[in-house]
Amino acid sequence: MSLPTQPLSPLDGRYQGAVAALGEHLSEAGLNRARVHIEIEWLLYLTEHELFGASKLEAGQAEALRRVVAEFGQEQIEQLAQYERTTRHDVKAVEYFVRDRLAELGLGGIAELTHFACTSEDINNLSYALTVRAAVAEVWLPKLRGVVEQLRALAIEHRALPMLSLTHGQPATPSTFGKEFAVVVHRLERQLQQFERIEYLGKFSGATGTFSAHLAAGPELDWPTISREFVTSLGLDWNPLTTQIESHDWQAELYTRVAHTNRILHNLATDIWTYISMGWITQIPVAGATGSSTMPHKINPIRFENAEANLELSSAVLDSLAATLVTSRLQRDLTDSSAQRNIGVGFGHSLLALDNISRGLGEIAVNATALAAELDGNWEVLGEAIQTVVRAEITAGRSSISDPYALLKELTRGRRVGAEDLAEFVRGLDIGDEAKQRLLALTPGGYTGLAEQLVEHVAR
């Protein structure tokens, strides 16, 4: 027995609720609405400037045309699908759709200005620029900023809470939990600044980027200026020099940046998973939730595991897009056409990961008791402080010790050293009394340097 038609991607099935907002922009319907928008705005530009004998439209006529875009919905989606079944060409279907709307509005006299001097890529590249920009600005970036704010709050809350650091998985100079969260906030804020500088480029120069048809129809017109004015009127940056296609460099730059951000988030997810496995972070039970089908005690860190997988999938898609889109054979091939239809997939998996990280951060607590116990069990991490102080004392002429590093290495390497062991060792050192008292007062929990103050860099 066959199943009824089912979504093939989990983004359109199991996880559809978490990523639905992207569909407003990065779906086939979102792309088609943008195409209609571009076609209509070009018509309005041509009539507004009274080119080729066209008259300016009345305000009500222009408003009615723009309403075609504003009211674009399921009925229009189905109409376009019907056009495309005949044309076998997606942009030509949009042109016929617009021509029919002109006829319905009594504007058939300007129908020949529809898609005037355009190649399909003139419409497509602007449509992708608009839809991707909207998806990033209205959906993806707000979710990322939300996660950054959650991390900022955790950094501030735990700025003074000491924790044992682990370098190479081994006990190392302590930090504070807040400072470690602040590191991630700072990394992500750098990426957010980079996103503000991304250009969304558009071209509008005909079949091979030469304005040839434009010049044939209107040799007296300044077509590069017209092109620039039209592209920038859409809020995009104008690309003056292209082949048939806009070169997609801005897309490669954007997707590379998103993939880089994914990897920072992946690092966060794996670290939190590790802290959970060590008991340094605890998970807050969710009423009714099941961690294991057979082990009822378990609370699995599924939010962070799900995020890991989706960040990897997102980066794989976006890396592929960034590599593919910057190459087009000679003046045009269609590899970008199929590739760009997966932009939403790349952003969808990243958005789903952000949703899981956000939920996961709301379901954890830092275990201060476990952190204190770890610090108390690793007094040997003070070896760094002791040998550094001895070096300073030697330089100041208050010690005759010949090799302080070797001395501490002999005492601490590969060994657990308790508080009393270290105190006895310090009392026997040939150093000044003030330095000795400073070292005797030091504890692993107090050996966090400027970690607390460093959180100020992200505490706004």
From TrEMBL:
Catalytic activity: N(6)-(1,2-dicarboxyethyl)-AMP = fumarate + AMP; (2S)-2-[5-amino-1-(5-phospho-beta-D-ribosyl)imidazole-4-carboxamido]succinate = 5-amino-1-(5-phospho-beta-D-ribosyl)imidazole-4-carboxamide + fumarate
Enzyme Commission code: 4.3.2.2
Enzymatic class: lyase
Pathway(s) the chain acts in: Purine metabolism; IMP biosynthesis via de novo pathway; 5-amino-1-(5-phospho-D-ribosyl)imidazole-4-carboxamide from 5-amino-1-(5-phospho-D-ribosyl)imidazole-4-carboxylate: step 2/2; Purine metabolism; AMP biosynthesis via de novo pathway; AMP from IMP: step 2/2
Molecular function GO labels: N6-(1,2-dicarboxyethyl)AMP AMP-lyase (fumarate-forming) activity
GO term, biological process aspect, one: IMP biosynthetic process
Known function: Catalyzes two reactions in de novo purine nucleotide biosynthesis. Catalyzes the breakdown of 5-aminoimidazole- (N-succinylocarboxamide) ribotide (SAICAR or 2-[5-amino-1-(5-phospho-beta-D-ribosyl)imidazole-4-carboxamido]succinate) to 5-aminoimidazole-4-carboxamide ribotide (AICAR or 5-amino-1-(5-phospho-beta-D-ribosyl)imidazole-4-carboxamide) and fumarate, and of adenylosuccinate (ADS or N(6)-(1,2-dicarboxyethyl)-AMP) to adenosine monophosphate (AMP) and fumarate.
Protein's name according to its UniProt entry: Adenylosuccinate lyase
Record organism: Arenivirga flava
Lineage summary: Bacteria, Bacillati, Actinomycetota, Actinomycetes, Micrococcales
